[in-house]
């Protein structure tokens, strides 16, 4: 499949994202992963990315941005994903302010459904944050970047800027302490993201990233304001518990059966 680049959508720590059109006229997002290292390290990184991509391409849920294809381009590897034109949660909140609790509750239901589906297949996102919650043309939310976050541990061949797994203002306490991310970590990160959507701030407040990391490692979350509805506060408080064993699974937080577990 050939892709015609239309324009640049953004730039992140791992590379750039372009809007493109495939041979069938479908608009897609191309995420270019910049690899580095020795030939042996590059080969190892490519092998792992492709192995994980085969798993990720089986994720089929309306609340997960689909990974459609993977291809090599020089020393880089490119992930082809669905393009959602409605922007992301960070952009919406920054432009218009916090969203009503009822709307955040609906977004949470949808994203928890998708996250539970991924967890049942043993897939952990590791870096849920407002910028990774995208909206389609009809305003429906979906989780993006499973195809990037799944391999963000310290694998030779990936950019050095991605050695830390997670985003300081939204990562779980265990991730901030350098522990392995699990499905419970995803639940915390999604709770933090929804809290941002409802209040305009992450659960650790606003500070330098290094300070946020220290707050996260200690599990020092700020109390949600009373502008957040009681029902949503209860749900988010449970998802943001500093002890991962005390958090509900994604399915339980949504209201389904408790019992989603990460791949080991």
How much of the sequence lies in strands comes to: 15-25%
Structural class: alpha+beta
What is the assembly state of the chains in this entry?
single chain
> Helical amount among residues, as a percent range?
25-40%
Query: What form results from the Cα inertia axes?
Result: globular
Distance between the termini: 34 Å
How many β strands by DSSP?
7
Overall average pLDDT: 88
If strands are numbered along the chain, what order do they take across the biggest sheet?
Answer: 1-2-3-5-4
The name of the CATH architecture of the largest domain is Orthogonal Bundle
What is the count of DSSP helices, taking H or I runs of 4+ residues?
9
Number of domains: 2
Largest sheet: 5 strands, antiparallel
CATH superfamily of the largest domain: Transferase(Phosphotransferase) domain 1
Give an overview in words.
This protein has helices at 39-56, 89-96, 101-120, 146-149, 173-176, 183-199, 209-218, 230-239, 250-254; strands spanning 3-12, 15-22, 27-33, 67-73, 76-82, 133-135, 141-143. The chain is an alpha+beta fold and 264 residues long. The chain has two domains: 3-82, Phosphorylase Kinase, domain 1, CATH 3.30.200.20; 89-254, Transferase(Phosphotransferase) domain 1 (Transferase(Phosphotransferase), domain 1, Orthogonal Bundle), CATH 1.10.510.10. It has a five-stranded antiparallel sheet with strand order 1-2-3-5-4. β6 and β7 form a beta hairpin.
